[in-house]
Amino acid sequence: MAKSSVFLVLFLHFLFFAYLSSKGVLGQSPVFACDVDKTPDLGDFGFCNPSLEIAARVNDLVKRLTLQEKIGFLVNKAGAVSRLGIPSYEWWSEALHGVSYVGPGTHFSNVVPGATSFPQVILTAASFNTSLFEDIGKVVSTEARAMYNVGLAGLTFWSPNINIFRDPRWGRGQETPGEDPLLSSKYASGYVRGLQQTDKGDPNQLKVAACCKHYTAYDLDAWKGTDRFHFNAVVTKQDLDDTFQPPFKSCVIDGNVASVMCSYNQVNGKPTCADPDLLAVVIRGEWQLNGYIVSDCDSIDVFYNSQHYTKTPEEAAAAAISAGLDLNCGSFLSQHTEAAVKAGLLNESAIDNAISNNFATLVRLGFFDGDPSKLQYGKLGPNDVCTPENQELAREAARQGIVLLKNSAGSLPLSPTAIKSLAVIGPNANVTKTMIGNYEGTPCKYTTPLQGLTASVPTTYQPGCSNVACATAQLGDAKDISAQADATVLVVGADQSIEAESRDRINLQLPGQQELLVTEVANASKGPVILVIMSGGGMDISFAKDNDKIMSILWVGYPGEAGGAALADVIFGYFNPSGRLPMTWYPQDFADKVPMTNMNMRPDPTTGYPGRTYRFYTGETIYAFGDGLSYSKFDHRLVQAPDLVSIPLEEGHICHSQKCKSIELFENSCQDLAFDIHLRVKNMGRISGSHTVFLFSTPPSVHNSPKKHLLRFEKVFLTAQKEELVKFKVNVCKDLSVVDELGSRKVALGSHVLHMGSLIHSFNVKI
Ligand SMILES: *[C@@H]1O[C@H](CO)[C@@H](O)[C@H](O)[C@H]1NC(C)=O
Ligand SMILES: *[C@@H]1O[C@H](CO)[C@@H](O)[C@H](O)[C@H]1NC(C)=O
Ligand SMILES: *[C@@H]1O[C@H](CO)[C@@H](O)[C@H](O)[C@H]1NC(C)=O
Ligand SMILES: *[C@@H]1O[C@H](CO)[C@@H](O)[C@H](O)[C@H]1NC(C)=O
């Protein structure tokens, strides 16, 4: 009796492990529908027929489902329908800056133990290199497909995060491309193009499906008792249309993204996931999204249970679906949608619409085409993950993003042959996980700053603080090694314990006693001191800016798995730094005076509110948007620019008889009106380097317009003493327009001032 029960237990164990491996838990086979090799009958279903149009396949599938089955396709853990050969599909995977383990759809295993971990997005954005954004997206989607093929990842990735970095305290600012609508738009469309690669042959075939989030005006997590689940963002029509919406619009229209995610917060009293104007009218109607709208996890539960936006859960379900939501991250819709239909709050046709958008996306991913190994991307596998080329791109991205903020003569680059000893100090000097920020995956490997620097010169090391909180700095040993070394590199800053999801900052200064550590070490140092700030948000480091012993300052964001190698490349001059700040660095005073909850972008002189971002902020900065030095000097010369731009208006236009300050954008006379700006840019230095040319414009002061906004940027590589002509085509309607108080775009008449480096050029726009 006893013996046979032992055997039974062993046998059950055997069955259990056989079951696990057949399910791909150990990473073997991908999840897909229409496996006609195994079940030939499935080939009779229209939805399994790749030669039919997408809409026909989707209709065929929807027609075959019961109401309960349909409801199962409204949530991220989508239901299985075995009679139709459809397995359960997990929609939630993430790939913010590399394939991530955040989200239940993706896992690492002994088959794929890690993926390339690129710099956190805020640093990649600092490269201002649009082809880099796309190249990173391509590598990430290659690794994602490779992991899907071995059953370790999904096909739908809820990245990128393209919210405007409105306030320096935001814990998730690190995930975003910064504060500027144009840079964020270029990042969004570029990264999404790389991920989806819809440009490769058939635009209806997706490599993976990306998702732009969190729509919209979401940029507060938890600050002094206000959290994202309860926050009502009060946003003017003007700010919505010229600051918060443009990245999403560009993501959908230019990037052709397959999904948009609505946020937790309310905008002007309505939860974004229950607002038909924001979802159905704008995303689906005006922007013509080809894909699905998904909620944050779990926004519907949040607006019902935390915001009490509806009286019953059925009303909440109906409100979300009626507003245009297609997929619920969470389980709220699987619990309450059927009752909503029974109560007459929702028609089944609305559910059909929603799941059709979800199915159409899966069709475009090849999910209903049978065995993926026979399809495009089917040959990708573990050998395509963490390749030397992919890891080199992670290092390259970090190098291109790193920003040199201060460099007194005779400091950087350090000569790797002249430096016989380098003191490396600080709580972030030898960190690994800190470098990859949040929404991370397991990286291929790490190179810490200490390891990167030690590869070139002999080093000594003292952390100086036991962690970034740095309650008590350990000054003695740190000062000693600095006093003996030829040069000192201090790596300080933040990590996810300081700024993170659900964690906004109060303080903009270096945490704890880090400032004391830096000052004391600098005073004790023998050689030049290089201060390296590793952080997502900007820091008030005025103390270091003004300290003559701190000769150089670098900001390295969270630089990814190869961050230490990239830092060493810059410090020793193997790479000429070219990153520029994608956000304003404010003084502590800003955080003391300005409530994070005030969404207004524009200053208000009556209350002393200073406004936000370089476009509007009127106060002092520590460092400004676009700041960043090089080891070379670059010179700009204006070659071509207009002095006058005339907008032809039809006879009888009201502005002929009456003095107008601006004209409506839809006037077709101005649609194709464009002019060229030509600049000659020269590398005056002795080493090669890349340089970002910014074209800013100050419009006439009508409609409370920005004091300056970025019209174009272009990054050029120039060898020593070389020059190049940089050409910008400026569209009068698109680029010179401003958003008026009611949210419509208008071209301001009068004097516009262009800024290009230190060059200034004015021209008049008249009718
Ligand atoms: C932009 O990035 C790409 C890599 O994606 C790189 O090859 C190129 O040199 C960069 N451009 C400039 C001007 O630095
Ligand atoms: C359901 O459809 C009917 C017929 O088209 C329509 O009259 C009704 O308003 C719809 N109900 C809801 C809740 O949308
Ligand atoms: C630096 O970090 C690496 C990786 O965590 C570790 O292996 C190494 O021991 C550390 N070096 C020192 C000197 O602490
Ligand atoms: C700098 O160090 C010297 C000793 O070398 C000391 O006398 C002085 O007080 C220090 N200054 C600061 C600001 O710590």
TrEMBL record:
GO terms for cellular component: apoplast. The keyword Secreted applies. Its main location: secreted. It is found in: Secreted. It holds the Pfam family Glyco_hydro_3_C. GO terms for biological process: arabinan catabolic process; xylan catabolic process. Residues 1-27 form the signal peptide. It comes from the Eukaryota. The keyword Glycoprotein applies. Residues 691-760 form the Fibronectin type III-like domain. Keywords: Glycoprotein, Glycosidase, Hydrolase, Secreted, Signal. GO terms for molecular function: alpha-L-arabinofuranosidase activity; xylan 1,4-beta-xylosidase activity. InterPro entries: BXL (IPR044993), Fn3-like (IPR026891), GH (IPR017853), Glyco_hydro_3_C (IPR002772), Glyco_hydro_3_C_sf (IPR036881), Glyco_hydro_3_N (IPR001764), Glyco_hydro_3_N_sf (IPR036962), Ig-like_fold (IPR013783). This is Fibronectin type III-like domain-containing protein. It comes from Tetracentron sinense (Spur-leaf).
